[in-house]
Specification:
single chain, mainly beta, five-stranded antiparallel beta barrel, about 0% helix
């Protein structure tokens, strides 16, 4: 059985610069390219997906955070793992102009040899009625 679910890009290819920190290190440079999707452009909720990349310095730890901000969207990563070449985070965010809130998860890999990381993030977004 095939299921056909129509999907529309609501906002696409938004580049969000970011930075963050560990207890004794930092994420001086990060970028997330994010897209928002819904079943049609008038929907008040949908899903989002993003690709993440960046660099880090200093001592890393499982407790870390990063903020991505493009002047209207603010996305917060609250790190839950940064060890054994893998990272994970809980994600929350808002869009100030549309009143949209979002949540989700992110994960990926990192390399201590090149001090770079990359991964993907995904979740759901909603806009309160009347916004």
């Amino acid at each position: 059985m095939n299921v056909n679910v129509p999907i529309t890009v609501v906002d696409s290819a938004i580049e969000m610069p970011g930075s963050g920190s560990f207890a004794a290190g930092s994420i001086p440079s990060a970028l997330m390219n994010i897209n928002f999707y819904a079943t049609n452009a008038a929907e008040l909720s949908g899903i989002w997906a993003g690709l993440v990349s960046g660099s880090f310095t200093g001592t890393t730890s499982d407790t870390w955070s990063a903020v991505f901000n493009d002047s209207s969207n603010i996305v917060n990563f609250t790190g839950t793992q940064w060890s054994a070449g893998q990272w994970e985070a809980q994600v929350s965010g808002t869009n100030a102009t549309k009143g949209t809130s979002m949540d989700g998860v992110a994960s990926g890999t990192y390399s201590t040899g090149t001090t770079t990381f990359s991964g993907a993030a995904t979740g759901a977004w909603t806009t309160p009625s009347g916004s």
